[in-house]
Amino acid sequence: MKVSIQAYANTISRLTEKLEEIGSSVDPFFQELKKAGQLGTVDEMDQSRLKEIKKQFQVATDQYRALEKMVWNVKVPAKLIGKHQLLKRYLREYANQCQKMVDAVDDQTKKLDEVAFQESEHAQEAAMGQMTKALTKIMSSLMG
């Protein structure tokens, strides 16, 4: 059975849009917490605000996990299997690192594991860079 390139292209397009949407919605929370971490003022934050930030991080991570499931279940044209495997790996790594960032926030004691937070941030950047490369290669293969 031949896999529909159009259906695959639509899935990849939807993935790209959702990645941007999720990133844009969680970024203000990330920036706020990052700044508080750099200033050493996490413990001075209102507990309900810290709880909201952690909740938004978890919502975003759960959305990334849903995208991961979508990418794992899509039917892939044979010529794109290798590139798609890379995409799956980097999306999984990205979602795993997002969860590590969630876990670095302790809203109960108003503490941030700064080392885990920064490691997660850097690992997310690396995974997103690799994911972007994979998506670019997939899109150029679809166009060509």
Please provide a written account of the structure:
- Helix content is 81%, strand content 3%.
- The protein is mostly helical and 144 residues long.
- A two-stranded antiparallel ribbon has the order 1-2.
- A hairpin with a 4-residue loop joins strand 1 (105-106) and strand 2.
- Helix 1 runs antiparallel to helix 2 (47-73) and helix 1 packs antiparallel against helix 4 (114-143).
- It starts with a helix and ends with a helix.
- Report the order of strands and helices: HHHEEH
The chain-level mean pLDDT equals: 96
Shape: elongated
Q: CA-to-CA gap between the ends?
A: 22 Å
How are strands sequenced across the largest beta sheet? 1-2
The total count of strands amounts to 2
Count of discrete alpha- or pi-helical segments spanning 4 or more residues:
4
Give the helix level as a range of percent. over 70%
Précis, in short:
The chain is built from four helices and two strands; from the N terminus they run H-H-H-E-E-H.
Task: Annotate the secondary structure layout.
Elements (H helix, E strand, L loop, with lengths): L4 H35 L7 H27 L7 H24 E2 L4 E2 L1 H30 L1
Antiparallel strand pairs: 1-2
List keywords for this structure.
single chain; 144 residues; mainly alpha; 4 helices; 2 strands; 81% helix; 3% strand
